[in-house]
Amino acid sequence: MPTLKSLSEDVKDRLTQAGIEEAEFDTRLLITETLDISDIDYALEKDRVISDEQVGILLPLVERRASREPISQIFGEKEFWSLPFKVTKDTLTPRPDSETLIETALKFYGDKDEALSILDLGTGTGCLLLALLHEYPNAKGVGIDISEATLNVAIENAESLSLSKRANFQLGKWSSGLSQNISFDIIVSNPPYIGSYEKSSLPPEVKDHEPEIALFSGEDGLDDYRTIAAEVGNHLKDSGCVILEIGHTQAKAVKKIFTSAGFNKSTVFQDLGARDRCLVIEKV
Questions:
Q1: Number of structural domains, the chain?
Q2: Domain range holding 40?
Q3: Does the pTM exceed 0.70?
């Protein structure tokens, strides 16, 4: 039977051979999560003997990761804003960069007791809407997605986070299906923004395992911004704002799209990597 040290070395070698850059990190995660070993024990108990039964549980998951299946789909969960979110092949995996949108909302609406109304377009796992509802206990929100399978995941996440009473989800493409007389303080969205020409350059974890409808937006990656810009004015309060995730080279182009749609003010915010990541659009 292998020791923890020999097993971790074998797993790391397998993942490295598969071209995974963060092989050491993924090795630790696979072993600690699957075999219920704490990070401290993983670091200190290298001579621990691992049973054949435990190895038999671990190795199929290692092979799934070696095939470039994302860790989030292997375990069916991903943390976002320190909250656990269910993830499936029908959803985009929540990413740390998207937390910039939550941070930005908190800057614009500093009173967490405010009874805000929030609309999340292309809600996916519901991570943006639910993280905001978690921060604003008196807020209510609506999440819209074009995929019924994706919406079911968002509904499950709302229930598991005890937020379902303040979150409603509905099927639709962007704001279609919303009543014309309903408006929101915050409209948040992480729309598809990858150009179709970029597909070949994406890592297998993305292009082979995440839904294309959540990734690609026409040749230049801007088609869905154009649609959103044309629609959201009808559902944004005069004092409200649209908070969008953008590709790090897209700020100028997306600003232009919203200016053409009648929005006169836009502000760019950067992620932790000092890259443009969030654009806040205001009417005035």
A1: 2
A2: 4-67
A3: yes
